[in-house]
Amino acid sequence: MSAPAPRSAEYELPRRWRHVPNVVHAGRRSFGIIREQDGQRIFRKYFHRTGDGWKAYWTEKKAARLFRDSSWAMPWIRSGWTLSGHPWFDVAAYPEENRLDRVLARATESERHRLAIEALSIVLDLYVAGYAHRDFHTRNLALVAGHLQLHDFEFLLPFPPNYRSRFSESYDITGQGLPSPARTNNMGFNADRGGRLNLPVIAHAAGISWDAAQRGLADLLRKELLAVSKTFRSDKEGNRHVCKTERIYCSFTVPGLVVRAEEAQRNAARRFARYGMTKSDLTGKRILDLGCHAGGMLFAAQEFQPGQCMGVEYDLNKVRVARRIAAFADLPQVHFQQGDIDRTSPRALGGEHDVVFCFALERHLTRRHRLCRLLGRVTRDLLLFETNSQTDPAQVERELRRNGFRHVEQLGMCDDDSCPENNVRHLLKAWK
Q: Which residues contact 151 (CB under 8 A, 6 or more apart)?
């Protein structure tokens, strides 16, 4: 990691630090050096003992904790304090030529566009987490082992409670809508700052239009959907079932992203049709989807204009993709959480919901006997239930009636799965 050397008296190091060799960055809040340790090149960042310096250190530490599981975040190797009380941390150093502005200058057009889309994907992760980096530009990203890594989180800011911005209009895209930190000049992925100020703007440096960047991000989300659709937990021992179709699990259409029925394993429109669902059944209704996979049925349900929607899924990687799609498509009313249906409670699920989806779930639970009891406590009006294969629908109907459902209809077997041998799941529709 490196950065330009100080260029003015305002950025000179305090006198006590001027003897330090290999200084590659100096600012009002911190300075950094390159050092060797155990045969590894290290970037060590020291922070001044000023109000701004302390704030920058604690913000960097918070970011390291928040994004430690993100492939694009540089992990801290170690951290500590100098004898004079200056906090510091170490990360792996990268060669100067790996900085994104240097990489883009020598890359082909297709490679520039790929890197810009990868950078935009990082902004999406920040947005989903509820944060703005506020200094997102080519000199704060580096190409490491073929992928981008982001650093310099001194200005990271959680979205204020009253902050309501679409992803495409958020601060790290436009540089607008939140306070601009000192000397960052409203920096954002697609910010228009004019003249030379646009040089570090990623979209400008990569030569990619905003529309092309959005299409590229949609393609990336489709690839992520396909990846998480390949397996799911199949039993209480944690074994994984590998799907035969190698397709995205469920079709849907949301702004900017379409998964056609012909390329999906499950046809959401056909599924809703088999349940006889119309717009009046879901418009304005609060919906819960237990075992929601990557959110396909909730996304497909948006054509009916429901109210708040919550999806609960055991696999965290599916939840992550679902959250990214909801943010990308500007669906703030659609939420996802990771959860174990075997152990969850009605309170953890937000109490009663007008409509509940429970599709092909019970065979993947270890405490199947409590599922219908849970459904009875979280369903206010209507339940759409799909069994797994070899489940007796009559037994399911009896359990539902015992748990408060006054009317239950058996609708036959599903017919929307692209794998014909999978169309052996029974459909039930139950009312309170």
A: 1, 74, 91, 140, 141, 142
Report residue 222: phi and psi, to 5°.
-65, -40
- Selected from 3.30.70, 3.40.50, 1.10.10, 1.10.510, the CATH number assigned to the domain covering 96-208 reads 1.10.510
According to CATH, where is 1.10.510 located in the chain? 96-208
Q: Which residue reads 């703005």 in tokens? A: 132
The superfamily (CATH) of domain 224-431 is Vaccinia Virus protein VP39 (3.40.50.150)
Find all residues with CB under 8 Å of 136, minimum gap 6, and list them: 119, 122, 123, 150, 172, 187, 188, 189, 202
**CB-based contacts of 387: which residues, under 8 Å, 6+ apart?**
360, 362, 393, 396, 425, 426, 428
Which of 224, 133, 225 lies closest to 178 in space, CA to CA?
133
The 10 Å Cβ neighbour count of residue 110 is 8
pLDDT by residue, tens only, the chain of 432 residues:
444 433 333 445 556 555 666 777 778 899 899 988 888 999 999 999 999 999 999 999 999 999 999 999 999 999 999 998 999 999 999 999 999 999 999 999 999 999 999 999 999 999 999 999 999 999 999 999 999 999 999 999 999 998 889 999 999 999 999 999 988 889 999 999 888 888 899 999 999 999 999 999 999 999 999 999 987 765 555 666 666 678 999 999 999 999 999 999 999 999 999 999 999 999 999 999 999 999 999 999 999 999 999 999 999 999 999 999 999 999 999 999 999 999 999 999 999 999 999 999 998 888 778 999 999 999 999 999 999 998 999 999 999 999 999 999 999 999 999 999 999 999 999 999
Residues spanned by CATH 3.30.200.20 within the chain? 9-92
* CATH class of the structural domain 9-92: alpha beta
Rg (CA), the chain: 26
- 234: its two tokens: 């199949």
Sequence-distant (6+) residues with CB within 8 A of 171 are: 132, 134, 165, 177, 178, 188
End-to-end, the C-alpha distance of the chain in Å comes to: 61
